[in-house]
UniProtKB/TrEMBL annotation:
GO molecular function: acid-amino acid ligase activity; ATP binding
Keywords, in A-Z order: ATP-binding, Ligase, Nucleotide-binding
Domain Mur ligase central: residue ranges: 120-309
Residue stretches in coiled coil: none
The keyword Ligase is assigned to this record: yes
Pfam entry (one): Mur_ligase_M
Record domain Mur ligase C-terminal: where: 342-456
InterPro entries per UniProt: Mur-like_cat_sf (IPR036565), Mur_ligase_C (IPR004101), Mur_ligase_C_dom_sf (IPR036615), Mur_ligase_cen (IPR013221), MurCDEF_CellWall_CoF430Synth (IPR051046)
Protein name per UniProt: Glutamate ligase
Length: 466
């Protein structure tokens, strides 16, 4: 795309561009630190406009202030205010509203892109599903989120990057990106839209699970009549999600871990082993086995979403890519530890937590206890960001913990104290501070013991124990 084309699309005013109007731009960045090329345009976030229109932090720096004025390795600066004092003749495109310009250009580029776009949302598993799909597509040029940046601004930034013409775009979207204020799915226009599940998260922002389901279903509004909706058939509100998807497309598919009458995709078998899970899928040539290097039952669901996506893209599933895939380092990571006197295995899952994620972690722990001869211990911190629903949501753990394979259960944070008081016939203790819990945890970790450490990453001191 030429510099002058960009100016025409966003109706901006070019300055310092004489002789550079036909300079080619083939990438865009909204984060200055990633601008590394004369073919990259920097969309400079205006502090006021981006805070007002995109919810950017009011404390975030002015985009122009981040520019190194001695840097000549910039193809174009798109900004509301001219940058004075540039040492090199870098073209600048002055616009009245940088957010409006961002959206206008992003939508224009998306409309020129004709390869498959896959969008993923859900209360749990969306990042892992996105990463696995991208890993399975590693033989192709794939555009995906940078890190897990999945808010509205990131969706538009990724739409700009479609100018690089990847073979596939795999984009996870948060509630922020498809809420009632603005549904970016309408502009992203995915060919495949995936909902990995509805769970008790975001209760500090939203009032009910029904409201969360309604918002997640908005991703389907971006589908056309040929689009494909892929839904976790085992999640809460699965039927509602299917009904909402059917408003946009007739191609609605569900996946389940077990065969059911209404399942479109499920494995022939799931086998839990020490440190990994094996899935069997019914392929044309017979049952094909796939090894997942995880103990997460939730990751089984994520894998099914990814496998179904590849089937709908008419692509083979590479078993080596499945086996080599590793999710986030702290997703149910089994860590063998050798002390001076004995060996211990920790399952560190303190990266984040929702109710489904915590239940998933406990189920994963249960699947592994048969392989260890020492104490089986569950240590928990609270699920954060639950607001007024905290007591109600944490109460859902009572039955799960009661029927767990744990010999000992250790709990931190006042949110878990009522849970401890309701559990019978278990060695369970609530601790007023992390040091007391850590002392008991280290004492209980004997030879060949297994300990699950699970909590949210924020709002609790528990991750410091891990």
């Amino acid at each position: 795309m030429y510099v002058k084309e960009i100016a025409e699309i966003v109706k901006g005013r070019l300055i310092d561009a004489v002789g550079q109007e036909n300079h080619i731009i083939n990438d865009f960045e909204t984060i200055y630190g990633f601008v590394k090329s004369k073919n990259t345009a920097y969309f400079s976030p205006n502090k006021v406009t981006w805070a007002k229109e995109l919810g950017r932090s009011k404390n975030a720096p002015e985009g122009n202030d981040l520019i190194d004025k001695s840097n000549g390795n910039i193809g174009l600066i798109i900004t509301e205010n001219y940058v004075e004092g540039m040492e090199h003749n870098v073209p600048q495109l002055i616009v009245d509203d940088s957010v409006k310009a961002l959206k206008t250009l992003a939508i224009h580029i998306r409309n020129q892109f004709h390869n498959p776009v896959i969008a993923i949302t859900g209360s749990m598993g969306k990042s892992s599903t996105r990463m696995l799909i991208s890993s399975l597509l590693q033989d192709y040029h794939v555009l995906e989120n940078r890190g897990n940046n999945n808010i509205r601004a990131a969706i538009y930034a990724n739409m700009l990057k479609l100018i690089k013409n990847p073979d596939y775009a795999v984009i996870e979207t948060s509630l922020n990106a498809i809420n009632n204020k603005e549904n970016t799915a309408i502009y992203l226009r995915p060919d495949i839209a995936i909902v990995t599940g509805i769970g008790a998260a975001h209760f500090s922002t939203f009032q009910s699970l029904e409201q969360i389901a309604e918002l997640k279903a908005r991703i389907f509004k971006g589908l056309n009549h040929n689009g494909i909706a892929i839904i976790n058939g085992e999640t809460m509100f699965a039927d509602y999600l299917k009904d909402k998807a059917l408003e946009s497309t007739q191609n609605v598919l569900t996946y389940h871990k077990e065969h059911t009458a209404d399942s479109d995709f499920s494995p022939e078998f799931i086998q839990y082993h020490k440190g990994y899970i094996e899935l069997g899928l019914d392929e044309i040539q017979g049952i094909e086995k796939y090894k997942l290097n995880t103990i997460s039952e939730g990751m089984v669901s994520n894998a099914l979403a990814a496998f179904l996506t590849l089937k709908e893209l008419h692509l083979p599933i590479n078993s080596e890519y499945v086996e080599s895939f590793k999710p986030f380092s702290k997703i149910l990571a089994m860590k063998p530890i050798k002390t001076l006197s004995h060996n211990v295995t920790l399952i560190d899952d303190t990266h984040n937590a929702s109710l489904p994620a915590m239940i998933n972690a406990i189920h994963a722990f249960n699947s592994q206890t048969q392989f260890f001869t020492g104490n089986k211990i569950i240590a928990l911190g609270k699920i954060n960001d639950l607001g007024h629903k905290s007591a109600e949501v944490h109460a859902e753990l009572v039955d799960v913990l009661t029927h767990s394979n744990a010999d000992y259960i250790l709990c931190l944070d006042s949110d878990l104290r009522p849970v401890v008081n309701k559990i019978r016939n278990k060695h369970i203790t609530w601790y007023p501070n992390k040091d007391l819990l850590m002392n008991d945890l280290m004492y209980l970790c004997n030879e060949d013991s297994l300990a699950l450490l699970k909590s949210s990453s924020g709002g609790t001191e528990f991750p410091e124990i891990a």
